[in-house]
Amino acid sequence: MDQNTYSPGLHKLVTLQVKEVTLLTDSESFITFSEKIIRDFELEKVGIITHNFENNSFTIAICLKESHICIHTWPEFKQLTLDVYLCNYLQDNSQKVKSITNAFVNYFKAVVLKDFEINR
Questions:
Q1: C-alpha to C-alpha distances, 73 to 20, 24, 56, 116, nearest whole angstrom
Q2: b/e for 90-101, b at 16 or more Cβ within 10 A?
Q3: Is 67 known to be catalytic?
Q4: Is-catalytic flag, 87?
Q5: Which residue of the set 67, 70, 94, 99 is catalytic?
Q6: Which among 52, 35, 53 is positioned nearest to 44, based on CA atoms?
Q7: Pairing of the two strands 45-52 and 9-17
């Protein structure tokens, strides 16, 4: 990519509706699945921060060398928000961002309520 065509990356923000509430309260299973995604898509994890709330909802931020994956769940509404962003430092990762987001949609067996793509 040269300076005139360079795009820093694709940022996907989705809100999902989930029928299976246990998926919105099981942060450990989400982390296990996320670790698989990180391996499958050859990403490099820098760290993971997790916070579990009193109602068993959770917020998780996964810091990647390439950028991040973040989630917040609302089991009382059967919803979650997911944020996936990968930078394009050495290659265009746009399709990878879309595929990772789709993998999480499938993991949650979710219906997409909102889907935003921001080309940075």
A1: 12, 6, 9, 18
A2: eeebbebbeebb
A3: yes
A4: yes
A5: 67
A6: 35
A7: unpaired
Of these residues, 63, 70, 72, 94, which one is catalytic? 72
Q: How many CA atoms lie within 13 A of 4 on its CB side?
A: 0
CA angle 72, 114, 116 (to 5 degrees): 95
Distances (CA, A) of 61 to 2, 7, 36, 106, 113: 31, 24, 16, 20, 21
Tell me the per-residue pLDDT of 80-109, one tens digit each, with 9 for 90 and over: 999 999 998 888 999 999 999 999 999 999
Mean residue pLDDT of the chain comes to 94
Token readout for 16 is 């999902």
> What pTM was computed for the model?
0.92
CB 87 within 8 A of CB 66: yes
